[in-house]
Amino acid sequence: MSITASLKSEAAQLALSRFGLGARPGDLKAATVDPRGYVMRQLAKSKLALLSDPALPSTDVIFRHQRYQEEMIRRAREANAQATANAPPSAPNMMAGSAPTAMMANPAGKPTDKPKKEMQYQDAMFDAEVTARFARWATTDTPLLERLVAFWMNHFTVSAGKNGFVTAATGAFEREAIRPNILGKFETMVLAVEQHPVMLIYLDNQASTGPNSRAGNNGARGLNENLAREALELHTLGVDGGYTQADVTAFARILTGWIYTDPSNDDVYGGRFTFAPNRHEPGDVSVLGKTYPEGGMEQGEAALRDFARHPATARHIATKLARAFVSDRPPATLVSRLETAFLNSKGDLAVVTRALVEAPESWALPPDKLRSPDEFLAASLRALDIPTDCEPLLNALNVLGTPMWRASGPNGYPIDSSAWLAPENITTRLDVALQFAHRGRTTLEPDVLAASLFAARLSLETKVAMSRAESREQALALLLMAPEFQRR
Amino acid sequence: MVPHDHFSRAVSRRSLIAASGGLFAWSFIPRFAHAAQGRDPRFITIILRGAMDGLSAVAPVGDPDYVVLRDSIALSVTGDKPALPLDGFFALHPAMPQLARLYQAGQALVVHAVATPYRDRSHFDGQDCLESGYETVAANLDSGWLNRTLQSLPKGERVALPSGLGVGSITPLILRGPAPVLGWAPPSLPKASDDFAARVAELYAIRDRPLYDALTEGLKIDAIAAKAGMGDALKARGGEIEQMKIAATGAARLLATEDGPRIASLSFNGWDTHANEGGATGRLAQLLGGLDAAVLAFEQAMKPVWKDTTILVVTEFGRTAKINGTVGTDHGTATVAFLIGGAVKGGRVIADWPGLKPANLFEGRDLAPTTDLRAVVKGVLADQWGLSAAVMAERIFPGSASVSPLRGLMA
What is the predicted ipTM? Predict the structure, then answer.
């Protein structure tokens, strides 16, 4: 192989791994012709990032169902409590049968004779959403778009663990606020996110009330800074973005009244974002040295647009993209390119992403980032043709420390691969790799598959280890554990 | 015996998570299972993947060449951990006291110097031959002999199992084919074996230092946790014995139910003992102990139907007669097979012993095959299910007309 051809083959690997979700058999060949073009072409197909499925309704519909279910449970509990109250006090097992615990998992974790609880709406919705993502990861021809979706979804983290509404609608949040905007203006995505009912619940803005608003004057609870703080610290400027506590509080005032409409109160607007003037703190507010005159919802939108275009935001996003895609310690030149692209385009993410793909630094060798658990999972699905039913895959993400859509805080999962280069994570990958190898449907012989996925980059050591494996399954598991597969 | 409560919630979607000890079973009860007369047989095939060392599992201690060949890992009927004498010539590995007990009770037999028709030494092809039942291994094998056996039986009622049990895409070749099968696996994610971890560590040692450091550090932690008895036994590395027991108990409970499956297959991995195989103790001893525990789990969980049960234990091929330079053994040819269960006419070792002199070894290195494994299986199928020699020679083991069923294996 000539040097040019060899470099092209290396670049094709990067096109598929650094900018993709890993190769399916045959992908490498397609990417080798023009590796950069292979990636760039995906950016012209932003519509393919959308996910529409008749089984996945919009947030307002999901909220209505969820509200209905909760109402039914409430009524059942009341009836149950009534019955318990009427029962003789000596009724056996009062504790175990009492209404509040009946819906909960058995706290002692002991086996119970009760029939298994029927799956609740939010869990069924969650599974359906997740299954659609796994299927998309396994089959997409525009994997860069899915990587961008995952990046921005993690950037604007919500956790399905917040409550039943969020569990049911985290997928809808991603479909509605993230997917349509990954190659649009950053400020459009920021607004879509901060006005989404799921984010309003997750970061508690639903509960925030202006102290001097009509509702505030009537004794409603007060200000909640959570969304305002994270919008500044995580979503836009970044923790070193130069804002103060006074800015956070001021912005929280601006965001009061940003809520969603309770689905049980409104058949038309229920479950949708709305501006509630009676909860909004009146008056002009100054944030980051600029005064935003009283203007209802427009006051917050204007502030968010400014934050989204702020130089600190450009720096924050540029650094994070470079770190997530290229290297834990990206070259300053790369960050600077992305920053410039962001500022010059007023936060046009198509321009920024193109700059990322075009930058020579982005194609640096060797690939030294370790795949994150979800990337490892997606790459395994594609390599081995693993069925995408959600339970085993969700379980794999659980044991790898990144339960799907359930980060423990609004800062999301780490983007530095040093987080995954941890002893426990690597030994767990052994178990997961074996499980994946066991479930893979690929009919290719392991050595043929390895050659198809890695061509010249397949190391002699990996080849030998695979050929000495005691079973096909073990050979496939070794392939998944090989540095060629783990690194990107 | 098995304190875990995995089975009360075993039949959920989560339980379909694949495990090395996964069970696959036929989803129909044969029609004659309900017949009043005769038996309602249960037939389980356990595949030991990686090539089990038959000369260590059932040692020919009466053969003077054995100790010469096996040197430091040779078993002896005297000493600290003596092998368990079977018939004066053969002795069972000391890690398998349950199997020895069943042997003495006439419920287990050994077939030695047995092999499939496969004569090369690739695990993949060897397992394909073992499972497909075909004389030669071709690409894209479509069915296994156990599935073709099922097709040859009268189809009965659909097995009524809870809806969570589904057909996996991961059915082993032995059960693959047109007859519908069920899949089940223990719900927890099994831990990778030390052997697999060592293989990956070896790869990282050369290729990727940071990954190597993280992995070896993680393995150290696991080892300490296992030693300290911390946490769930299943989670501990080396908990594979526990996993074998759990897989066996789960399978046995399904097979023991009145409307459950009658035919099943399990696989246990990790038998490729190229280095530090060990003798009376060590790596192989640990695996054999797991197999022994699985046998006991079957016996206990299937108690009411144990008398109708046959467990066939097989592996793709044996290992070299002589130990290698890393105190292990390499890929060989003939090995042992076990028949275990209340339906077995046990208490004997069936062997046309070829001897271990250099001239007697297959290709100068392996225990020579003198019994065709297909003869053993045919004998079981004929005795248990009444399948005719013609059907077996044409359909189940195509091209095996010259291999006569070994009759009289069943009680």
Answer: 0.85
